[in-house]
Amino acid sequence: MSQEFSEKPFFLQAFRGLTLTIALCEESDLTLHTQRALADVIRDLVIHQAKVLIVAQDETVVRAFLSGLESELSDLLPVLTSHGGEIPAALWNRVTPVHVVYLGGETAIEIFWERLARFGALLRLPRLLLIHRDGGEGWLDGEGESLNFVNPARLKRLLSDSDAGTSGRAVLRRTILELLTGGVGAVSLCRLSDLERELFSYEGRGLFFSRRHYCQVRRLTLDDFSAAAAMIRRGESEGFLLPRSDESVTALLTQGYGAFISEHHLSGVCGLVTGPYRSRNAGEITALYALTRFQGEGIGGRLLARMIQEARRMRLDLLFACVGDPRAMEFFGHHGFERVDSDRLPEEKWRHYDPARKARVVSLARRMGGGHDGDGATRG
């Protein structure tokens, strides 16, 4: 397991056999540079047996961009089709992995959004990447915080804000909501120049909208291990998690849990270790980390709530964690954990533990009372 674990191969494997739809219009960042970047992304996807559908506004600038793209992808022989109310048969008879569909005529951008919403709902597209030059920047929640992940309920609240009239952003928000309610699985709003990071990295590079906005916490499976390992390494690089050896990460994965948005999008990880602490009837929460773009959904709190639930199910007396980041200390404190002296934790925790590392961490514990703790798990 490499310390510099790459996230890209995981996503390319996950996209195998799926159709990714990319929407281009006059408000996309269409340049020679982004044309080449899009060609590189499409090649990566096709090599890994994904399919690409480009839905474009029928404007001269878009046609010129796609003409250049066709030259870049001449080895893939993309088929240019059109959509005039009927779905082109070529979309079902996928003789090539790349198709371009024009939504017809020299149209205003508002009409393109309307047609895109109908088209996406008609095909129930699994994933739509809506390319826009603002890349989702400046989208704020009610507290003025930048948004990274938006579910339909939050999107409806945004539409009720003061700018929800006829502004370009309000029209775009309504289009995305129509796409989600019409059956599109997920929408990403991003710049074309950021498309690779949006598709192939965990933190993304834009706004992610999901129709199924619930979060499921479950045990990690073999197919989740590579994604979870990369996420742990990301948490270490950000200073939120303490560094671990490859062997420690491997052991953690077999005892790990993941938080999944829309069933398959891993948004957070953690482990619950009990084996070494059986004599004390204790459990340790390790490597609890949630992606920044999903923090507004309380992913960390949901993971910790599940760990408390599991501790109660196993009738543990003590649940503890050792952290080195002030943000982690505050987070655990909000969920009923108190700072304790290190000698109050099971002595097995410190056996063969690096003394210098021990001096840097803070011990936090929550008394469970053999599974009869009456606090109830706090959900973030």
Characterization of the model:
The chain is an alpha/beta fold. The protein folds into two domains: 8-210, 3-Layer(aba) Sandwich (Carbamate kinase); 215-367, Aminopeptidase (3-Layer(aba) Sandwich). Helix content is 35%, strand content 21%. The chain contains 13 helices and 15 strands. Strands 3-4-2-1-5-7-8-6 form an eight-stranded mixed β-sheet, sandwiched between helices. It has a seven-stranded mixed β-sheet with strand order 9-10-11-12-13-15-14, with helices on both faces. Strand 10 (256-261) and strand 11 form a beta hairpin. Helix 5 runs parallel beside helix 7, helix 6 (152-159) runs antiparallel to helix 7 (168-181) and helix 9 (225-237) packs across helix 10 (246-254). The protein is elongated. The protein starts with 7 loop residues before the first helix and ends in a 13-residue tail after the last strand. The relative contact order is 0.10. Mean pLDDT is 83; it is low at 1-5 and 371-380. GO terms for molecular function: acyltransferase activity. It holds the Pfam family Acetyltransf_1. Residues 215-360 form the N-acetyltransferase domain.
